[in-house]
Structure formats: C-alpha cells, structure tokens
Write a structure and sequence with these properties.
Layout lengths: L1 E3 L5 E2 L3 E4 L2 E9 L5 E2 L1 E2 L4 E7 L9 E4 L2 H18 L5 H6 L7 E8 L2 H12 L7 E9 L4 H10 L2 E5 L5 H10 L3 E4 L2 H13 L5 E19 L2 E14 L3 E6 L2 E13 L2 E2 L2 E3 L3 E6 L10 E10 L3
Parallel strand pairs: 9-10, 9-11, 11-12
Antiparallel strand pairs: 1-7, 2-6, 3-4, 3-8, 4-5, 4-7, 13-14, 13-20, 14-18, 14-19, 15-16, 15-20, 16-17, 16-19
Helix pairs in contact: 3-6, 4-5
C-alpha cells in the first residue's frame, strides 16, 4: 500500500491501523523503490506490513502497540456498524417521501403453501412508484445464512409461524437486521402495505421472557395441557402468554394457567429448575417441545 504522510513522521517498526486492518511497518520505500527508515510530511511511501490491503482514502494511524491497535480497530468497527442503518419498516416509513422505491424482503414460513401465498401477495403490492422484491424465500426457521443474505441485500426478514435459531437471532441483533414475526398472512400484508405508504402506527413487539423444554406429558383435561418441563432460560411466570414450538415452528399460542414445584403451586420458576406447567389449550404435546413465554411492548415508530 502507498501512503502519503500529512503530518508527523512514519517509522519502520511503528504499529499502525488503517481502515479495517492493522500491522507493524516492516519496510518503507520511496517512489523509486529505495528503502526508507522513515517518511515525513508530504512524502509518499510504499509500506509493507499491513494485514490486508486498505481501501483507497483510508487514514493511517500510528498507535503505541498491538493491543492499542486491536482496541482502535474494535472502536472503528463499532462506529461503522452504528452508522450503517439496515432497512426496516421503520426506516421505510420515515423515508417514504424521499424517493425510497423498493423494499427487499426475505420470506420464511412453516410450509411451502404459506411461502408461495405470501410471496404472491407481496408482489401484488407493487405499483409504478413502489415495489416489494422478494430476494429469497424458503421453508423452515430463520437461519444464520438468511440473516447474512439480509445484511448483504439490506433486506428485512418476514417469519411466518417460524422463529430464528440461536445463531441467527444473535447475528440479527448484532447487525440490526429486522426480523418480523407473523401468524396471520393478512396482518403481514397489511403491515407491508402501510410501510410502503408511510402510514405505520406504533409497533407492538413480542419480547421473550423464558424458555422451557417439555420433559413429560402428564394429562390433558378441562381444556388444559399439563406438562413436566425444565426452564432453560429466563423466568417462567404463571399467567404469562406462551407459545409452543416444535422444530422452531409455532403450534399453539395461549397462557400459562398453572405452575408447580413438586406439589406446591408457585408464581414463577427460574432457569435450571424443573416444574409442572399447565397451559390453556389442549394440543398433541410431545417431549422435546419448547415453551416460550413472552410479553408485548410498544415500540414507538419515531
């Protein structure tokens, strides 16, 4: 890489950061290829020792040591991430009058029929001025590769009756990729249509509180399923809204009607403990099902 020192002096042996890379200056050469011990202000020099080739126009910064270089690289990366705004229904709504013409979407659903129905309905929302483009669609839970595609394509993800796996959820949170969850196709289409018109109301989002794994199916009577489970994450509370998942697909959405530790009724059970859980709906319960409690929060649009 060739650098032009605007101020100060660059020496062989200096530790430097440039863009997204760093290294130690192993050698300097002038424009004729002759070696230099240092390069002063306004002196162009070719530098050897960077870990990768920086982009043209990047600023080269001298730091005290490799540890300082790592800290600075992390800070620069975080700053860049914060400044990069991913496409979301919020940003689409906010920029509706600023020439935003296309919304790229990734569609994931529990069955092929739902995928095809959603994709067809979204494409019918397109007009002469706005267009919804489905860049990828598939059956199954939202995967890490789906999120990576959303990052590359600046797209949002719609998840119909499916959830992300752990790696996908972590990556989406880190990179601020929006994943929107639906269990009614009409609601999905209505939100997309409002987004294109810039008319979204405040958003209500589901926030997960706890997850438990079903270990046993006890009985199903009087409109309830009574299950033996172990709480894997968070705190399970009586009265909470709960969804039942199997292979990341939602089967039931209801409420936690009862919680028991041994023979005692309790209000809550924390992570790591086994308990009996009653939910307000009968379904084909199986060992290994996931119970996920959640609450609703309002998220202002602006």
């Amino acid at each position: 890489a060739t650098v032009l020192v605007p101020a100060g002096t660059l020496h062989v042996g200096d530790t430097v950061v440039c863009g997204k890379t760093s290294g130690r200056v192993r050698a300097l050469f002038n424009e004729n290829g002759a070696p230099l011990a240092e390069a002063g202000p306004s002196v162009p020099a070719e530098i050897l020792g960077l870990g990768a080739l920086p982009a043209p126009g990047e600023t080269l910064i001298v730091v005290v040591d490799e540890k300082a270089a790592k800290v600075l690289l992390h800070e620069l990366t975080e700053r860049e991430r914060e400044e990069t705004e991913r496409m979301s229904l919020d940003t689409l709504s906010a920029t509706a009058g600023e020439g935003v013409e296309e919304l790229d979407v990734i569609v994931k659903a529990d069955i092929r029929g739902s995928v095809e129905a959603i994709q067809q309905a979204l494409e019918q929302l397109s007009t002469d001025e706005t267009r919804v483009r489905v860049i990828y669609s598939g059956v199954g839970p939202v995967s890490e590769s789906d999120v990576q595609l959303a990052i590359a394509g600046n797209a949002l993800i719609t998840a119909f009756n499916v959830r992300p796996d752990a790696a996908a959820r972590t990556l989406a949170e880190t990179e601020k990729v929006e994943i929107r969850y639906y269990d009614v196709i009409y609601t999905l289409i209505e939100e997309m249509q409002k987004a294109l018109l810039g008319l979204l109301d405040p958003e209500f989002i589901e926030v997960m509180d706890a997850q438990a794994e079903v270990r046993a199916v006890f009985n199903q009577v009087r409109g309830q399923s009574v299950l033996g489970a172990i709480v894997r994450e968070g705190t399970m509370r009586r009265g909470a809204q709960v969804r039942v998942l199997r292979n990341k697909k939602q089967l039931v959405k209801t409420t936690v009607t009862s919680l028991r530790r041994f023979k005692d009724a309790v209000r809550e059970v924390t992570s790591g403990y086994e308990c009996g859980i009653g939910i307000g709906e009968i379904y084909d319960a199986r060992e290994g099902d996931t119970l996920e409690t959640f609450h609703i929060e309002e998220k202002p649009r602006f």
